[in-house]
Specification:
The protein is mainly alpha-helical and 247 residues long. The chain is 69% helix and 0% strand. Helix 8 (187-208) packs across helix 9.
C-alpha cells in the first residue's frame, strides 16, 4: 500500500469528518441529507466534493452562489491526510495503524467541535469506546489490564476535580476515560500532564495578549487531543526521558 493511497484515504476521511463536525453538535444525521452549500442550500455534486482540490479550483467559493467557503474545510481534510501518512510511516501496516487512525479521526472531530461549540458530544465519545474495545484486542495494545487502569486512572482524578472545583467539564472527564482505553497506564497520566501544560501555556499567552480575561474558560479538548496523540505515539519514550531527568 503506497503513501499516496494513505494520503488520499486521509483526505477522503477528512472530508467526512467535516460533515461530522458540522452536523453532530446540532443533532443532525451524518449520513443524510447529502452535502449542500450552507449559504444557498444547493446540493453539492461529486465534482464539488473532491477533498482540498475542489476548494482550490473554485478559489474558496461555492460554485452556485459564489459565497466564500471557509478555509477550515480543506484544512481539516489536509490535516487528516498528513496525520494518516504520519501514522502509516510510524506504525506501518496492521491493526495498530487502524487503531491510531480511528483515534486520530475521533480527536480531530473533538478538537473542532469543542472549539466551535465548547462541547464534546457524548456520541463521539461513545463511538470511541465502542471502537476501542475490539481494536484493543485486534491491535494487541495496550494490554487489557493496562487499558482498564488507563480508563480508571484517567477519568477518576478529573471526575473528582470536576466535582470539587467545577473547573473541568463533564465532557472532558468522559473523553479522558475513553482515551485511557487507547493509551493505557501510565500513558494516560502523561497525556493529562501534557494537556495541562499546553493549556497553561496557551491560556497565559492569550491573557498576556489580551485575547481572554483571567479565569475565562478555554476549550480543553484540543489540548487533550494533541497530548493524546503524543502519548499514543511516543508515550514510553517521553516517560523514560522525564524520569531520567530526575532519577
Amino acid at each position: 500500500m503506497s503513501d499516496l493511497f494513505i494520503i488520499i484515504l486521509g483526505l477522503c476521511i477528512g472530508s467526512f469528518l467535516n460533515v461530522v463536525i458540522y452536523r453532530l453538535p446540532t443533532g443532525g444525521s451524518v449520513a443524510w441529507p447529502p452535502s449542500a452549500c450552507s449559504q444557498c442550500g444547493e446540493r453539492l455534486k461529486a465534482k464539488d466534493l473532491v477533498p482540498v482540490f475542489s476548494w482550490l479550483w473554485l478559489k474558496g467559493r461555492c460554485r452556485y452562489c459564489e459565497e466564500a467557503v471557509a478555509w477550515r474545510y480543506p484544512a481539516v481534510e489536509l490535516l487528516t491526510g498528513v496525520v494518516f501518512l504520519s501514522l502509516w510511516q510510524l506504525l506501518g501496516p496492521g491493526w495498530q495503524f487502524i487503531q491510531g487512525a480511528v483515534l486520530a479521526s475521533i480527536l480531530i472531530v473533538i478538537t473542532f467541535t469543542d472549539l466551535d461549540h465548547r462541547i464534546i458530544p457524548d456520541k463521539i465519545v461513545l463511538f470511541g469506546f465502542l471502537c476501542g474495545l475490539p481494536l484493543l484486542w485486534l491491535a494487541g495494545a495496550p494490554a487489557p489490564l493496562a487499558a482498564a487502569l488507563g480508563v480508571i486512572a484517567g477519568a477518576l482524578p478529573l471526575f473528582l476535580l470536576a466535582v470539587l472545583t467545577n473547573g473541568m467539564g463533564g465532557g472532558d472527564v468522559k473523553l479522558v476515560g475513553m482515551l485511557g482505553l487507547y493509551l493505557g497506564w501510565p500513558q494516560v497520566l502523561l497525556m493529562v500532564f501534557l494537556a495541562a501544560v499546553l493549556g497553561a501555556i496557551v491560556g497565559l499567552s492569550l491573557m498576556a495578549a489580551g485575547k481572554i480575561k483571567r479565569k475565562e474558560p478555554i476549550p480543553f479538548g484540543p489540548f487533550l487531543a494533541v497530548a493524546a496523540m503524543a502519548a499514543y505515539l511516543g508515550g514510553d519514550h517521553l516517560i523514560f526521558w522525564y524520569l531520567a531527568l530526575f532519577l
